[in-house]
Amino acid sequence: MSLSPLAVIQFLGDNDLTYDTHQDGELKIHTAQGLPLRIIEGDYFQFTETDFDACYDRAAMVAMPDSKRASYVSHTLERLTPSATVLLISLYHDGENQTPPFSVDEQAVTALWGEKIQKIASENLVQTIPRYKERGYALFEESIWHIKP
Q1: What's the domain range around 123?
Q2: Quick check: pTM over 0.70?
């Protein structure tokens, strides 16, 4: 899984951030000037830093095919401190997508992340965002999870 260079540039530009970039092996490190913010661009599985206190997964797990999800979760948990918190957004839908975002049901989320997971909220986006209904979905549920590894 790789973070898109375009997404990095758009984020930094949209937030009017000036930044420095340097290469660290196969990864590019973008450091915002004057802020404690770094964006790491490249293959996530090449990222080996540890001791993070928090993780926010907005679209990573649902971008992974089923065959890579367990490795993704394991790699993520290895990056975190024992007291870290994870905020995860998952999607479950009735579509036949062969491309991301993939549907991940509640049982898969809990099996992957373990018993210290709690669903905070969920919403069927078909009811609030017309484009999902227009694309033929009857269900496109976005869920927010809190995980205490």
Answers
A1: 50-149
A2: yes
